[in-house]
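note to self: dont lose this again. the chain is below, predicted strucutre after it. 370 aa total, dont forget to put it in the shared folder this time
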Amino acid sequence: MNDMKEKTIIVTGGHQGPAIAVIEEIRKKYPSWHIVWIGRKYSFEGSRVVSPEYELVRSMDIPFESLTTGRLDRSMSAQSFFSFLKIPLGIMQSVRMLRDRQPDCIVSFGGYIAVPVCLAAYLLHIPVITHEQTHALGLANSMIARIARKICVTYPETLSVVPGGKGVLTGLPIRSRIFSPPVRPSFAVPNDPLPILYVTGGSTGAKTLNEKMYAVIPRFIKDMILIHQTGDSSFSEAKILKESLGDHAGRYIIAPFFDVSDIAWIYVHADVVVGRSGANTVAEVSAFRKKAVFIPLPWSGGNEQMVNARHYQKTGNGILLKQADATKASLTDAVYTLLARRKHESQGDIPRSDGAANMVKEIDSLLSPV
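---
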């Protein structure tokens, strides 16, 4: 192994937000370390559309190794069966990549892409540390946990399901820049004393959620400014809607993707957030103590988004709407109900998160000589 002054770390997994937060912390603490990302270059199997993951990683000047492998699925269909058969290919590719790169450890963030990388690391006696973003171990992390040296978790209750006493409570790594909002965002905001509603499906958007929102946006912009992160697949529809809004079009602010600086500004100023309830979105909303309407993705692994939304609803700052129940009437009622609730007394504060720093400490201890 290399000495502590120069290490090679391979990062992989399906949750890019926490992964980028940990990379930023590593670069801050150990600028001489080499970081390599193993992931998917294209958005979907058979697609030639470059994934947001690839574009983001390459924009940070991080070497990217593209992996072809199969997906894990709790239910078995003909499609998932043939996808599962690609996992051995992913393991063989991973073995080659790891032999070429000679990493000191693998840092995993779950998801099907991380499984062959971690299995290859186990075969080559390379230590693995993984992070679980949700309340329960996902399918991929349930497998990775058996061979990982450490399993970092976001929530205390997850420690009880981690095998072998390998669990460590770190919290969720969140990008530090999200807690450093600019004075003004990169987009124009109307100078109206109106509440701000932020609608997001995450960095890649959420087509079904967007379609449900289009029906209520003309109603909402009569009383509020609406900022909408649409994702690439829904942006053209949002543009058509914006053009139909006449005098109120300036209150509907759209983009396929907002960078982290703009997201920081939005979280500070938004009165209500509407979105899916993935681990990263819920963690950010929670950090900023925002009122939120969560519409969980119905087919998320282990029903994790539903669990996340239920936990946030218990704080009194959230309303959970199942996708099938998210109608024009229920969305309108949920948003106006939350707008009428009293703000958290510390809502204006800029929070901090030490999840990334905590995880880098665990990587340190894994690599430090005994």
